[in-house]
Each structure stands twice: as structure tokens, then as C-alpha cells.
Write a structure and sequence with these properties.
Blueprint (H helix, E strand, L loop, with lengths): L8 E3 L2 E3 L5 E4 L11 H14 L1 H21 L8 H15 L1
Antiparallel strand pairs: 1-2, 2-3
């Protein structure tokens, strides 16, 4: 199953997609005031989740560019291997 198309945005403790569709709710009724460490962490989590479609698209673009670069440039064959492996793993985790 595919994820909700981006872009996503943070709406308080919620993350919403196109048309205001709720993608995720990051909240705790006991901790919903900014300045509360648990609430602050929830807001940060909501920002990170909201950026997920953009981050995935950026990783895919970087992977394509690195694959093309490695295929066309006279460079050591293991250059960027660790980075490409990490990028592929992150993409697979997002799309699994």
C-alpha cells in the first residue's frame, strides 16, 4: 500500500496531507502545552513526520544522481558505497 501523497503539513499535534486528510496524530491529552517537554517533543515529531514525503523524494533524487555519477565517472568503485547503501535502506524502510 502506498502512503498518503505529499506534501504533508503540521497542524498542531496532527499531520495532514492534501485536502486536510489526517495522516497522523501526535498528541497526549495530559501534555498539550508548549513548554512541556513531552509536548515539545510531540511537536518536533509532528514536524519530522510532516517532512517525510519531501525527505523520501530528496533521497530518491540523490540515489539516482549517485548511481548515475558512479556509472559515468572514473572513480574508485567503492566511492559512496556506504552512503548509497544507507540511502537505499532508508528508502526501503519508507516503502516497505
Amino acid at each position: 500500500m502506498a502512503h498518503t501523497p505529499g506534501p504533508w503539513y503540521r497542524d498542531g499535534f496532527n499531520v495532514r496531507g492534501q485536502g486536510g486528510h489526517e495522516v497522523a496524530q501526535i498528541a497526549n491529552d495530559d501534555h498539550n502545552t508548549l513548554g512541556d517537554p513531552i509536548a515539545d517533543e510531540a511537536w518536533a515529531n509532528a514536524r519530522l513526520i510532516a517532512s517525510a514525503p519531501d525527505l523520501l523524494a530528496a533521497l530518491k533524487a540523490v540515489r539516482r544522481e549517485l548511481d548515475c555519477f558512479k556509472a559515468t565517472e572514473p572513480i574508485p568503485t567503492d566511492l559512496f558505497d556506504d552512503e548509497i547503501t544507507a540511502i537505499r535502506a532508508a528508502i526501503a524502510k519508507a516503502e516497505a
